[in-house]
Amino acid sequence: MSVLQEYIAGSNEFKALEKSFSEGKLSHAYLVVCQDKEYVGEFYKSFAKILLKNGAQVDSDTNPDFITIKSEKNITVSDIEPVISDIYVKPYEEDYKVYVIDDASFLTPEAQNKLLKTLEEPPTNVVLLLVASNDNSILPTIVSRCAKVVLPEINEQVICDVLGENGVQDAGFYAQMCGGNLSRALALSLDSNFKQLFQNVVDMFLLKSSRDIPTFSAKLNLQKLDINEFFDLTISVARDIMMVVANKTDMIVHKMYGGKFAEIAKEFGLESIAMITKNAILAQKNLYFGSNPQMVLDTFLLKMVEVKVLCRK
Question: Which terminus of the chain has fewer Cβ atoms in its 10 Å neighbourhood, N or C?
Answer without folding.
Answer: C
